Amino acid sequence: MPQNLEITELLRRWTAGEKAALDELVPLVERELRKIARRALREERLGPTLQTTELVNEAYLRLVDQTRSQWQNRAHFFAIAAQIVRRVLLDHARNRNRAKRGAGANHLSLSSVTVVSPQKSQELIALDEALTRLAEVDRLKSQIVELRYFGGLSLEETAEVLNVAPVTISRHWHLAKEWLKRELG
To answer: Is residue 21 part of a domain?
Structure first.
């Protein structure tokens, strides 16, 4: 069975209450979750205060807690994963902005440290606020940005999740990027 179909079947079995399906599902989705997390961290440069593994673990815990979700397929699962990664990053950025200088600082070796820009946390929060405004004007464009930017989904995968033609996704993606550029510029 191709992996996409296997993931879809395991998601359905898990939704139906079969706990063993979750055990089979985890190794299959972990690589994709890591890819989403690495991309999100690279884009946001949150560096030493949040590592890929931490982001994946937090996203995983929140995904497992999605007891009300009726997983349609692999693309739907990763769309929800993208939303959760976005929320984890936002929570992290907001907490960093609230923390007093040096409070609760982690001790890390120099080899694990990457460049951290406090400005990136502000940019992530500004992006979230802009996406919230975009959702008020055009929910579809906001969802497309979330799926493509935070989830790393392709045009085709985004079209599948939203049940819209890929050409429509492409057009809205372009318009949404222009709208966000104006809002954030």
So the answer is: yes
Residue 41 confidence (pLDDT) above 80: no
175 domain residue, yes or no:
yes
Q: Which domain holds residue 123?
A: 3-98+115-184
Distances, alpha carbon 103 to alpha carbons 99, 107, 116, 121, in Å: 6, 12, 16, 17
Is the pTM higher than 0.90? The answer reads: no
Q: Regarding predicted confidence, which is higher, 109 or 103?
A: 103
Q: How far apart are CA 73 and CA 96, in angstroms?
A: 35
- Answer yes or no: is pLDDT of 96 > 90: no
Looking at the domain assignment, is residue 110 inside a domain? no
Give domain status of residue 108, yes or no.
no
32 near 78, Cβ under 8 Å? yes
